[in-house]
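User: Can you write out an input/output pair for a complex, sequences first and structure second?

Assistant: Here is one pair. Inputs:
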Amino acid sequence: MASMKKRAPREQNDSWVVIAADSVVDTHETDSEPAFVRLRNPSTDATCLYMLGAGDVQLYEVKAFEEDFHSWFVGQTVQRDGRLLFITPMDPLYLMLPYLNKAGKEGKFQPVDQIVMDEEFPACSRLLSCTHSLASLHHIAEEKEVGSLKFHRYSQEKTMSWLKKKVERTVVALRKKNISVGEGVKSTTYVRVKSEYQEEDYLRYAHGLISEYISEDLSKALLKHLQLPELTSPKETEPPSKKRKLSDKPVEAGDDYTKFNSVDFSRKPPKKMTAAQKTLAKADKTGMKTMSSFFSPKVKAEKK
Amino acid sequence: MSCNTSVTRVHVSPVGQAPRAPVHLLPCEIEHNGPAQVSQFFIATTKDRKYGTLTIEKTVSFRGRGLKGQELSCPQGYTGLVLKEINKPGSDQEDRTLKVSSVFDKLTYWNLETPPNSDDTIVMAMDWPELAEAIHVPVED
C-alpha cells in the first residue's frame, strides 16, 4: 500500500447516502421530525450518533458501511464520501442498561427517570419516551410499585435471560440468512461457501453481535450464561485478505457525521479485544466504532 | 462536552416530493464533490448484458477501466435517501439541519473487473437490516 498516491484530505461533506427504515420518514402523525442525537455507546462508552424518530417514539441505530476507495454518483453530482449509512430500529433497552447497571450497584430501588440521566448526554432521558422503554424495563430490573409510582433496581439474573433471548433470536436470523459464521475467511472465489456450522458457531457469533451493545463485563457473564467456554487465545486463521477487509477509517476531525458506528464485513472468528485495544477504544472519544457487529466482535482501535 | 447537546434535525416531510435520483457506487475515490455530467458520460455508455429479458450484468468503461455492475434493491421496508445539509452552522454547538434531497429504491454498484456476485460486501450489507431486527425487536413477555 506504500505506493499508493496520497489523496487530498477529505473536506467536510454535506451530503450522505442513507438506507433508512420506512418508519423514519413516515412522520405524518406528529409535528416533530427525526433527529440525530449523541448518546453513550453501551459497549465502548464513546460518543456515538443515534437517531430518535419523530416524537421520540423509536430509537434508531446508525451504521456506516464503508469500503476503501469508493465514491457515489447521485443524479448529476459526484459525492466523494463513498459510505452507505444504514438507519435501523434499535432496542432502547441496550442504551438504558448501563445506567441501570451502574445505579444497581447502590442496591436500592429508584425511579427510572432518576437513573437514566446523564449530564454529558442530555438526550439520554429521551430514551424513556420510546414506545417500549418503560414496558420492557422489567427484562433487566426488578420493579416495585408504591401507589402510582414505580421504582426499579437492576437485576443481573433478569438481564442474562433477556440477553439470552436476544442471542437465540439472532441465531435464528443468522441461520435464515445463511450468513457465514465459521472461522476465518471462507473463500475468495465468487461462490459463497455454505458449510455446515455447529450450533456453537452460531451461538458464539450471535454472542459477538450482541456484545456490540453491552459492556465487556456483561459480555463475559453472558458467555458463561450461555455455557460457552471463554476462548483463551483466538485461533489465528485469517490470512490477510485485502479483498474482504473493509477499513474503518479514522474519524475526521470536525465532521460530526463521521461519528457513526461503521460496518465491517470481513469474516473473522469472534475475538476479544486485548486490554490495550480496549483502552485505546475507550480513549477515542470521537466515537467511531466498528460495526464489527455484522461479523465479528472485534473493535479496531484507531490511531490518528 | 457541551456539543453533545446539539442535535441534527432531518426534514423528512418533503420525502414525497423529493426527486428520484439514480445512485451509483463506484469502485474508486473521486476527489470531488459537486456537479458532473453523469448521464452524458457515464450512464449513456452503460450496457446491459441480458439473459433473455433479465439483466445479469451491466458494463461500462470509466476512465479507461472496465467496470461491471448490478442493481440492488433496498431491503424490504427500507427507503434510500440522500440527505443534504442546509445552512451549515459555524460551530458544533449549534443545531444542524438536513433535508432529503433525493430518494431511491435501488442503487447500482460497480466492481472493477470482477463480475458482481453474492459475496460482494455491499450485497452482504443489505442483510444487515434483517439481522438488526433480530437483535433489536423488543423481547415480548
